[in-house]
Every structure is written in structure tokens, then in C-alpha cells.
Design brief:
The protein has 280 residues and is α/β, with parallel strands linked by helices. The structure holds zinc ion (ZN) (2 copies).
């Protein structure tokens, strides 16, 4: 089975709010990774408003109408939903989804911080409706709290959402968790926290798919700097991929989240695609 990569040329051609022009050298920057016979490149289509309306109030969608980032957000979420269906149905083993203006700060009533519609909301809504998904586990390793994702799944105990940010908190159901990773951490310490706080919960929760909101704003020198090296991100993906192989038949989708530095994106994203496409 193959790894799907979802990328639209528009993502490289603009300067996006908060995330900047970090994909300016793509898809060329992942040229080698795309040469693998185990990788398929998809050009995403815009998500239908109808699906978004099941997640967001119309004011969220009306608020971005005609804005320069509207199309980027719709294409990004289109890629997320298509990836989710293909991975869940077994048409792809796993997927890497490029995203420019959607993500974890988009909640039911409000969206901000460079992410204007939700990625995970429409993905899981669609999987529940068309594929009878029961349980999913979201991992958020962006530097900032995933308030929008949390808001969307607040009352859904079939979604485990573990967010590595700046507070320690576990809700009554045990499915909504925040982990304080501190501002001055290290690769070793952060990875240890992910293993302790996410891996163990995922093994107990037994999700059918893992979705990773993966920001690199935590990288040293990026805007949410927590002192991590570039190699941290590659190791993280190796470990989460192996977890997904243990618990959910390898169903693992990475969505890019925060981070604005092109050099970091170019260093970490192509090897992540290599890792996803390797058989073990
Ligand atoms: Zn962030
Ligand atoms: Zn959080």
C-alpha cells in the first residue's frame, strides 16, 4: 500500500497568514521523496461548504469569504478529507497533507491564528458518516494550544485529543488532555512526554486512525520556539508511525500546522514522507 501526499501548487505561490511562504520551494523540495514508487502525489480539490457547515457556524465561513487565504484553506481541508477517506478505506496506507490556512485554531463559532477552518472536524465528520468510524486519536504537537479542535470535539468521547502545549489538564472523560511541555525543553524530554502521555493513552483507547496536527513552530528559531532541533520532528514521526502500525493497521495522517521557516519545512517534511512510505 502507498503513501498519499496532498499538495496544491497554490500553497507555494503565496504568503499565508502566520505560516508565511514556507512551502515556496515545494513540490521540488520533496522531489526525491516523490520518486518512490510507494508515494502518490494528489492535487487536492476544494472542500464542499456543505461538510464544513456540519462543523462550523456559517459566520466562520462567511468571515473568510473573498479573503486571500480562503481558497488555500478550502484546498487544504479538501486534501485532509480525501486523505482521511482513502486511508480509512485502505486505498492508502497513510498520508501527508500540506496545509496553509486551516487547522487547530478553528472552532465551531470562531477561527483565528492563521487557521480559518478546521482540518480534523470535517475529516472525522466525513469518516463517521460515510465509513462508520468509531474512534480516532488526534495528536497535536504544534507549539500552541489546539483550542479550535478541542472545541469541536468537546462533547465527543470517541475522539481522543492530546495536545502538547503550555498547561497540564485531563478532563473527566479522559479523552481531552493537555500536556505542558515547557518553553525550554529538549528533544529527549519532549519525546518522553509524547510516549508517556500519548502512546499509553492511545493503546488503551484503541482508535481506528491517528491524525497528527504537526507544527514545527516549536523548532529552535521558529515563532513558537521550544528549543527543539529539526531532527526531533523526524524521530517523532518514526515513533508515531510505529505506534499506528501497532494499534490501528498503520492508519496515520500527518497534517502540517504552524511554523513559518521554509528551511525547517524543507529539512523535515521530505524525510517524513520517506518514513511514511517505508514498509517498516
Ligand atoms: Zn502554533
Ligand atoms: Zn493544549
Amino acid at each position: 500500500m502507498k503513501t498519499g501526499v496532498f499538495f496544491h501548487p497554490l500553497f507555494a505561490s503565496k504568503y499565508w497568514p502566520i505560516m508565511g511562504n514556507k512551502f515556496i520551494k515545494f513540490p521540488e523540495a520533496m522531489h526525491k521523496a516523490l520518486k518512490s514508487e510507494n508515494v502518490i502525489l494528489f492535487e487536492p480539490k476544494k472542500i464542499e461548504r456543505e461538510i464544513l457547515m456540519k462543523v462550523h457556524r456559517s459566520q466562520v465561513l462567511d468571515g473568510i469569504k473573498g479573503k486571500p487565504y480562503e481558497q488555500g484553506a478550502y484546498l487544504s481541508v479538501g486534501g485532509c478529507v480525501e486523505a482521511a477517506e482513502k486511508v480509512y478505506r485502505g486505498e492508502l496506507k497513510n498520508a501527508f497533507v500540506f496545509n496553509v490556512s486551516a487547522g487547530h485554531h478553528a472552532g465551531r463559532n470562531r477561527a483565528w491564528g492563521g487557521t480559518y477552518i478546521s482540518c480534523t472536524g470535517p475529516m472525522l465528520k466525513k469518516l463517521k458518516e460515510t465509513c462508520r468510524l468509531n474512534k480516532a486519536a488526534i495528536l497535536d504537537t504544534d507549539s500552541h494550544h489546539g483550542d479550535g479542535t478541542r472545541d469541536i470535539f468537546a462533547e465527543d468521547n470517541d475522539v481522543l485529543h492530546v495536545c502538547f502545549c503550555s498547561s497540564d489538564n485531563v478532563d473527566k472523560s479522559g479523552t481531552k488532555v493537555d500536556v505542558d511541555v515547557k518553553w525550554d525543553t529538549s528533544d529527549t524530554r519532549y519525546l518522553k512526554q509524547v510516549r508517556t502521555e500519548y502512546f499509553s493513552r492511545v493503546r488503551d483507547f484503541k482508535p481506528e486512525i491517528i491524525i497528527h496536527e504537526l507544527g514545527h513552530d516549536t523548532c529552535s528559531g521558529d515563532y513558537g520556539d521550544r528549543g527543539l532541533t529539526k531532527d526531533f520532528f523526524i524521530q517523532l514521526v518514526k515513533e508515531v508511525k510505529s505506534l499506528a502500525e501497532d494499534v490501528c493497521h498503520g492508519r496515520y495522517i500527518i497534517i502540517t500546522m504552524g511554523g513559518a521557516r521554509p528551511d525547517i519545512s524543507e529539512y523535515i517534511h521530505p524525510p517524513m514522507i520517506d518514513i511514511l512510505s517505508q514498509s517498516h
